[in-house]
From TrEMBL:
Belongs to the syntaxin family. InterPro entries: SNARE (IPR010989), Syntaxin (IPR045242), Syntaxin/epimorphin_CS (IPR006012), Syntaxin_N (IPR006011), T_SNARE_dom (IPR000727). GO terms for cellular component: endomembrane system; plasma membrane; postsynapse; SNARE complex. GO terms for molecular function: SNAP receptor activity; SNARE binding. This is Syntaxin-3. GO terms for biological process: exocytic insertion of neurotransmitter receptor to postsynaptic membrane; intracellular protein transport; vesicle docking; vesicle fusion. The chain crosses the membrane at residues 167-189. SUPFAM superfamilies: t-snare proteins (SSF47661).
Length: 191
């Protein structure tokens, strides 16, 4: 392009400088974009390599970096999946892992429930303690009231006995007085 620009004598030197400037700016930007593209490609390749390495390790296959590079270079997906998908051992191991995971989730749920129960126990104990304290206080008050009632009942029985004695004495006195009065009236009338 530079040759084409320099070869065209009809154009002015100002146009030529503008074209050269634009050409160099665009060339630099193109190089920057290509460099970024190459970096992105390398980063993607490394991430893919790490992911494939992890997947192979999960299935129990150990590979070196060279073997992994060969797998990536060949572009044959069967290399990655051979022995993984069709392997009965891998399927069984996956099934066992899933079963263990379910068991762990159930165990975790049971432990959480147990933890919640243990967290509720102190509150229940505290509430029951307050209730027991109230019951104990009421029992003590009841004992006091029963003792007072017993004392008052004994006094009432004592007073009732004294009242009956006094009533009998009063009746005897009234009868004696009536007898004396009748005697006096009878003597005074009969005389």
């Amino acid at each position: 392009m530079e040759r084409h620009i320099e070869g065209d004598e009809v154009r002015s030197s100002a146009d030529l400088r503008i074209w050269k400037s634009q050409h160099s700016v665009l060339s630099r930007k193109f190089v920057e974009v290509i460099t970024k593209y190459n970096e992105a490609q390398v980063n993607f390749r490394e991430r893919s390599k790490e992911r494939i390495q992890q997947q192979l390790e999960i299935t129990g296959k150990k590979t070196t970096d060279e073997e992994l590079e060969e797998m990536l270079e060949s572009g044959n997906p069967a290399i990655f999946t051979s022995g993984i998908i069709d392997s009965q051992i891998s399927k069984q191991a996956l099934s066992e892992i899933e079963g263990r995971h379910k068991d762990i989730v159930r165990l975790e749920s049971s432990i959480k429930e147990l933890h919640d129960l243990f967290m509720d126990i102190p509150m229940l104990v505290e509430n029951q303690g307050e209730m027991l304290d109230n019951i104990e206080l009421n029992v003590m008050h009841t004992v006091d009231h029963v003792e007072k009632a017993q004392d008052e009942t004994e006094r009432a029985v004592k007073y009732q006995g004294q009242a009956q004695k006094k009533l009998i004495i009063i009746i005897v006195i009234v009868v004696v007085l009536l007898g004396i009065l009748a005697l006096i009236i009878g003597l005074s009338v009969g005389l």
